[in-house]
Amino acid sequence: WKMYRAAERLKLLISHLDRSPSAIVSFFYVVDCNLLTPEQRLFYEENGFILIKNLVSAEDIEKFRKEFERICRQEVTVPGLLVLRDVAIAKSEFIPDQSMVSKIQDFQEDHELFRYCTLPQILEYVECFTGPNIMAMHTMLINKPPDAGKKTSRHPMHQDLHYFPFRPADRIVCSWTAMEKMNRQNGCLVVLPGTHTGTLQEHDYPEWEGGVNKLYHGVRNYDSQHSRLYLEMEKGDTVFFHPLLIHGSGMNLTDGFRKSISCHYASADCYYIDVKGTTQENIEREVMEFATKKYAVDDEYTFKDTWAFRGRLVQGERISM
């Protein structure tokens, strides 16, 4: 498998050198797409991500911010929405304010926030990785808080595919948009370029002294000497990345909150898998325990069902998802 992928990348490099109209270009991670330049395609193939500047307008971002604040103030109730608090303040008295919320996810029933997942300028890039039939599978708005001194605002290095019981991985992509300026001070994304060409690694909670936020699993044994890149971004910049790319984020060392909004997309041609007997058993078990406790689901409700329930068709035809 690794040899096959290496051969594909070699063909890509050869075709990249041949710029004649008759050149046959072979891409492993990008589908036929006229939007990306040859340089952008090559960069994604080699690195597993691509950053597009100023893709989402300041006006839209402000609307998303206001809707998030309404949710935090409990002015609106969104069915199925999960509201999470940083572990450092999880046991303190809840005040309906954004300072108490570190992340919301599964906002597919919130019209304003879900509008992000349907923005035409987002979907035209997503189609380059999934093809024309697109499902929005997982939604998040992260409100990374100023670190309380226990380093809990950081996110361990991980691969998003760990959470997903559907394949193939190469037809899944995340769209992640900065809602304000991001740098190393406030905990921007950090990626390990090229790790998307590997396999899914074993994940679990890291043994951090200050504690770890719920469902923040990390890769157990990644190469800490691998070159890393900090993605400093301006408001509206959007990064698209492969679900096997190892990435995370550092502490927020500023006094403000660092917001981002994201959606994981999959081709509607993708299919569900049984994760029993794989490295994903631990996340399946944790998700099902949570679903049973929060939603009182019965024994017939499966890990696959938790995803099928949340998935929404945003373009084309819903086929097997």
From TrEMBL:
Gene Ontology biological process terms from the UniProt entry: fatty acid alpha-oxidation
Chemical reaction(s) catalysed: 3-methyldodecanoyl-CoA + 2-oxoglutarate + O2 = 2-hydroxy-3-methyldodecanoyl-CoA + succinate + CO2; decanoyl-CoA + 2-oxoglutarate + O2 = 2-hydroxydecanoyl-CoA + succinate + CO2; 3-methylhexadecanoyl-CoA + 2-oxoglutarate + O2 = 2-hydroxy-3-methylhexadecanoyl-CoA + succinate + CO2; hexanoyl-CoA + 2-oxoglutarate + O2 = 2-hydroxyhexanoyl-CoA + succinate + CO2
Cofactor(s) the protein requires to work: ATP; L-ascorbate; Fe cation
Xref: InterPro entries: PhyH, Phytyl_CoA_dOase-like
Cellular component terms (Gene Ontology): peroxisome
Coiled-coil boundaries: none
Matching Pfam families: PhyH
Record key words, sorted: Dioxygenase, Iron, Metal-binding, Oxidoreductase, Vitamin C
E.C. designation(s): 1.14.11.18
Functional pathway: Lipid metabolism; fatty acid metabolism
GO molecular function: L-ascorbic acid binding; metal ion binding; phytanoyl-CoA dioxygenase activity
Gene3D superfamilies: q2cbj1_9rhob like domain
Family: Belongs to the PhyH family.
PANTHER family: PHYTANOYL-COA ALPHA-HYDROXYLASE, PHYTANOYL-COA DIOXYGENASE, PEROXISOMAL
Protein name per UniProt: Phytanoyl-CoA dioxygenase, peroxisomal
